[in-house]
Write a structure and sequence with these properties.
The complex is a heterodimer. By secondary structure, chain A is mainly α. Chain A is built from six helices and no strands. Chain B folds into two domains: 30 residues; 288 residues, Metallo-beta-lactamase, Chain A (4-Layer Sandwich), CATH 3.60.15. Helices cover 27% and strands 24% of the residues of chain B. Chain B contains eight helices and 14 strands. In chain B, a hairpin with a 2-residue loop joins strand 2 and strand 3. The chains are: A mainly alpha, B alpha/beta.
């Protein structure tokens, strides 16, 4: 009886040692739990709230005005100024280009005002219209250069356009998130 | 007579040695110090969107097809040549808008320069590799800097804007993603900032090649990424570097001859721009890329001397000119 008991003890010890070796080996070989990275961003992932049907309809109705008229015209306005300063210095040509752009901004504002606006989008809508008003005012300031040739008019207009362009991005971030992708 | 010949020979030899020493000193003076700053990081971009020939194939073990998404840094070059402080590209500005770009680790570039030991007001030149929003932003934060942009870049945007088909003229297409239309990626804010520099007499509109400082050369890479893309050659103590903005989006792409980040890109011109780096630097190691996912690691050796700075954005010290002390935190 004693011998089998001793065998059992030895066997148990061997099993325990083997198990311990397995545990140690697993700890050494298996991938370690990676601690939270110190380089992790402190920013939180923006969470998108799904739009209601009315909000979707509003964003969809404003999109062609924004994409095909407003943004293109806004960039065109910068180019009108660049061409005047670096190439032709022709105030009448500048005036003609900018007046056409002003009409486009006014037309866009008129169309935007005709879109049904859900209550939840009132603030966004006002911000968009405010941007269009700023572009209208910037256009008026730009054409003043035809009267006296002073570049200060263009600088003042560019400041207004800059604020309007920021407003467009802010509205875009709400209505068309991801409008600008890495490129 | 022999003495006279000997003296003349000695004098000649001394003159030659003198010239050699002077030239060597001058060459050393021209060397620039270079750092790379991560303006932000675009997270989880599909590999196939970045490099079409490495599109992900589920289950594949082929290293060319087994990567699903990549995180792309937006790299800005900081170059100090004598008293001039030059930026190559200027990143973009994320304030309370442009949050949905899928980006992390953004910090204002002036703040990033400050932790690197520089003052934004001392930036003298900004070379815009191309005019897209994520590379030509924050210009108004560098009031004393003169920007360098190709005429061809401006012409390319203007041509697209005036194209009669609105789908081609659009600055942006399809809610939720700017596609690869000709004027895609040039929002009013970015172009407006370039215009602001023009108005304030702080813009040089370049036509092709230009040397902006001794040995610091702009090379056109038209249609390498956009209509008027450009490269910047910079002499350093480790040899010449070539900054490529998005024409050099991927360093692995240059090494392996693969197109990357195709926007308004003619891939033939992108490959010719790759070749330009090989010719100027003698290989691919010194080609500085805007979005290489391996940036700031051993995988992209020239950027491996790196550290983590503001908001988790990374920086690398690439080369130091004689007398320039390290800006890497100890």
């Amino acid at each position: 009886m004693r011998v089998p008991h001793a065998r059992a003890v030895v066997l148990s010890v061997i099993i325990v040692v083997l198990l311990a070796m397995v545990v140690v080996a697993m700890q050494r070989e298996l991938p370690r739990q990676v601690p939270p990275s110190q380089v992790a961003s402190v920013e939180t992932e923006p969470v998108l709230k799904p739009f209601s049907a009315e909000e979707e309809a509003y964003a969809a109705a404003l999109w062609p005005i924004h994409s095909e008229v407003v943004e293109v015209s806004a960039v065109d306005m910068s180019f009108a100024g660049i061409a005047y300063v670096t190439e032709h210095h022709d105030t009448h040509r500048l005036e003609a280009t900018v007046m056409e752009l002003r009409d486009r901004f006014r037309g866009a504002a008129e169309k935007a005002r005709s879109i049904p606006v859900p209550a939840s989008m009132g603030k966004v809508h006002d911000q968009y219209l405010e941007a269009l008003t700023l572009y209208d005012a910037a256009s008026a300031e730009m054409v003043n250069v035809a009267a006296d040739g002073r570049v200060e008019h263009l600088i003042a207009a560019q400041t207004m356009s800059h604020h309007a362009a920021e407003d467009l991005l802010k509205v875009g971030d709400v209505l068309w998130p991801g409008e600008y992708k890495p490129n | 007579m022999r003495n006279l010949i000997g003296r003349i020979a000695l004098t000649g030899a001394l003159v030659i040695v003198g010239f050699a020493v002077a030239n060597s000193a001058a060459a050393q003076d021209q060397n620039c110090s270079v750092w790379l700053v991560e303006s932000s990081r675009f997270m989880k971009v599909p590999m196939g969107g970045f490099m079409p020939d490495r599109a992900f194939v589920p289950g594949s073990t082929d290293p060319l097809h087994n990567i699903n998404t990549v995180d792309l840094p937006v790299n800005v070059g900081v170059i100090k040549c004598g008293n001039d402080l030059i930026l190559f590209d200027s990143g973009w500005k994320q304030q309370d808008y442009l949050k949905m770009t899928g980006s992390e680790h953004w910090a204002p570039l002036p703040d990033q320069l400050k932790v690197l030991g520089f003052d934004a007001n001392n930036v003298t030149k900004i070379v815009i590799g191309h005019g897209h929003w994520d590379h030509a932003g924050q210009l108004s934060d560098f009031p004393n800097a003169v920007i360098y942009i190709q005429r061809e870049e401006l012409n390319g945007i203007e041509w697209a804007l005036n194209y009669p088909n609105p789908k081609i003229a659009a600055v942006n297409t399809s809610p939720g993603g700017c596609r690869r239309t000709p004027a895609c990626g040039y929002p009013p804010l970015t172009v407006g900032e370039i215009y602001g520099k023009v108005l304030n007499g702080k813009a040089v509109i370049v036509n092709g090649e230009a040397e902006i400082l001794p040995g610091v050369k702009i090379h056109p890479a038209f249609r390498g990424h956009t209509a008027g893309s450009q490269l910047l050659e910079v002499p350093t103590s480790i040899g010449k570097l070539v900054f490529g903005s998005d024409t050099y989006s991927s360093w692995e792409g240059i090494r392996d001859w693969m197109a990357a980040n195709i926007q308004q890109t003619d891939t033939v011109q992108q490959f010719l721009a790759y070749e330009k780096c090989y010719k100027i630097t003698g290989g691919y190691q010194n080609c500085i890329c805007a979005h290489e996912p391996l940036s700031y690691t051993d995988g992209y050796p020239i950027t491996r001397n790196s550290w983590v700075a503001l908001n988790g954005g990374r920086m690398a010290e690439i080369a130091l000119a004689a007398g320039e002390k390290s800006h890497k935190p100890q």
